[in-house]
Design a protein that fits this description.
The chain has 118 residues and is mostly beta strands. It has one domain: OB fold (Dihydrolipoamide Acetyltransferase, E2P) (Beta Barrel), CATH 2.40.50.140. 0% of the residues lie in helices and 49% in strands. Strands 1, 2, 3, 4 and 5 form a five-stranded mixed β-sheet that branches.
């Protein structure tokens, strides 16, 4: 199962104006646990763990290109933009669709700006 998620960071530039930077990450989930597929829709907030991979390729103009892909090992549905509090939609299943633990990377579709407690 292949899908993309957007990670948006909000920050202030040198002049103090708020800016946003969005990075799109292609995700590949190699598992027989595809029951989550119908719930992965635009606007759904997810937590994704896996191993990042850089794919290099040659463009048609002869220059080199690269893309970032995450080999997903664990997906958790967090909710949707339209859900108050962002914690689960009315049609979203509760659950952690895990295939094992590895080094982790976090990708959120909402790009939260909360400070981490550590």
């Amino acid at each position: 199962m292949n899908f993309s998620v957007a990670h948006t960071e909000k920050f202030k530039d040198a002049q103090g104006a708020m800016k946003e930077k969005t990075t799109w990450v292609d995700c590949a989930y190699w598992s027989e646990r595809t029951a989550i597929a119908p719930y992965l829709k635009k606007g759904t907030q997810v937590y994704v763990e896996g191993s990042p991979e850089i794919k290099t390729f040659q463009k048609s103009d002869g220059t080199s290109g690269a893309s970032l892909q995450l080999r997903v090992m664990n997906i958790q549905l967090l909710g949707s933009k339209s859900t108050e509090g962002g914690m689960g939609g009315e049609n979203a299943p509760a659950g952690n669709f895990s295939q094992g633990r590895t080094e982790s990377a976090v990708v959120e579709m909402n790009g939260g700006t909360d400070d981490l407690p550590f």
